[in-house]
Amino acid sequence: MTIELEAIYQGGVLRPLEPLDLSENQRVRVKVSDLDEDELLDTEYLRYCEAHADESISLEEVRVALSKIPGAMTADFIAEREDRF
Hints:
Elements lengths: L6 E4 L2 E4 L20 H4 L2 H10 L6 H9 L5 H12 L1
Antiparallel strand pairs: 1-2
């Protein structure tokens, strides 16, 4: 089995950012490499957004429009995270 995952180094220990399907005390081989910022960003989508941005719309107008959306977006984020596990 081979998997690729992201982890964070804290207190001398690599901590995966997602659950692993491994048995307790199972030995594995780990390859560590730095993440390039471009790997974390969806640069294609950012270019799309820049090309379609409308500078005539103010931040305040966006805030007013978003405030009219019913409910809390926090619940959506929590539900999305729960779907990952």
